[in-house]
Amino acid sequence: MNGTGRTGLGAGATTALQSIGFQTLQPANAPATRTTTITYPAGRKASAEAVAAHVPGATLREAPTSGGDVVLTLGTDGAAVQTSPTTASSPTPSESPAPSSAQAFTTGSCIN
């Protein structure tokens, strides 16, 4: 759904999602919204997360009712469909672990 007011944005997102392999419905307009959201019914969170991997910055929101489809609503925040999935970056450790001293083990040593 296009909640940006910009003509063609919903159609572009639909085409991008189809090119990745998602099944989509016809794009439609939504009331103006700032936040890009992915709304999903109970039991469809994994599907919503699959879409979210291609829409960095989108907010996941569980629908108040059960049943229905996963719905991407584009907002004016600029989030857009990426054809390559994004991954969360791993935090960088603030300190390096202390180096361990090497140990030699002989035949018959147990190193559980």
Give a description of the structure.
It is built from 2 helices and 3 strands, in the order αβαββ. It is an alpha+beta fold. It has a domain of 65 residues. The radius of gyration is 22 Å and the shape is globular. A 3-stranded mixed sheet has the order 2-1-3, covered by helices on one side.
Low-confidence runs? 88-112
Number of helices: 2
Q: What string gives the helices and strands in order?
A: HEHEE
**How many β-strand runs?**
3
User: How does the helix and strand content classify structurally?
Assistant: alpha+beta
Main beta-sheet annotation: 3 strands, mixed
What percent of residues adopt helix (DSSP H or I)? Answer: 10-25%
Q: Distance between the terminal alpha carbons, to the nearest Å?
A: 56 Å
Query: Which outline best applies?
Result: globular
Over the alpha carbons, how many angstroms does the gyration radius reach? 22 Å
